[in-house]
Amino acid sequence: MNGAIFFSSRYGSTAQYANWIGEVTGLPVIDVNDAKADPSKYDFLILGSALIFYRLTIGKWVKAYLADLKSGSKILFTVSGAEAGPKLHRWVAASIPESLLSKMDHVALRGRMNPKKLSWGLRLIMKIGAFINPDPQASKEESGGFDYVDKASIEPILKLVEQYQANKGIS
Ligand SMILES: Cc1cc2nc3c(=O)[nH]c(=O)nc-3n(C[C@H](O)[C@H](O)[C@H](O)COP(=O)(O)O)c2cc1C
Fold first, then answer.
1. Is 82 helix (H, G, I), strand (E, B) or coil?
2. How far does the centroid of ligand 1 lie from the alpha carbon of residue 76, in Å?
3. Architecture of domain 3-111+148-168
4. Does ligand 1 have an atom closer than 6 angstroms to the CB of 113?
């Protein structure tokens, strides 16, 4: 099958997951910021996106290419601090039109955040966010950082790719 991985990453963890999936599956890995990123050439897509301030960074690109994305099989993997659950689902649904999201298999992966690598202004915003966050664990991670990046967590994506490839009749 003719597939590809398109990703959008701000701090590198989504790019790292995309590259790991590319290494195992042999699919090409394309940054959506690359001017030549053209999803219409593929009949099977894996879209990967970072989640920054309650929105997916791939959202704008998805809306621009919506017509090209509507056909074919798609996996969406998101990379966030939050784990899978209703909160993450709300943010994903606010970033991807329902007409597309309902046709995608979504896999939630967890990323990393190192406050030392953020600008002074962003660090301050994260500290304020942590102060007002009612969830103690999320609050601690917002101010102190976290690292949940784990190669083994791509396994469900690899399984879906295998299913797609075994079931070539998908539209
Ligand atoms: C400025 C900033 C805002 C973030 N906002 C959120 C958020 O709203 N929800 C969340 O679950 N994680 C949030 N995160 C955590 C990121 O999703 C996490 O760092 C992820 O690994 C980023 O992916 P990337 O390395 O590909 O850019 C934020 C991180 C940063 C640095």
1. coil
2. 16
3. 3-Layer(aba) Sandwich (3.40)
4. yes
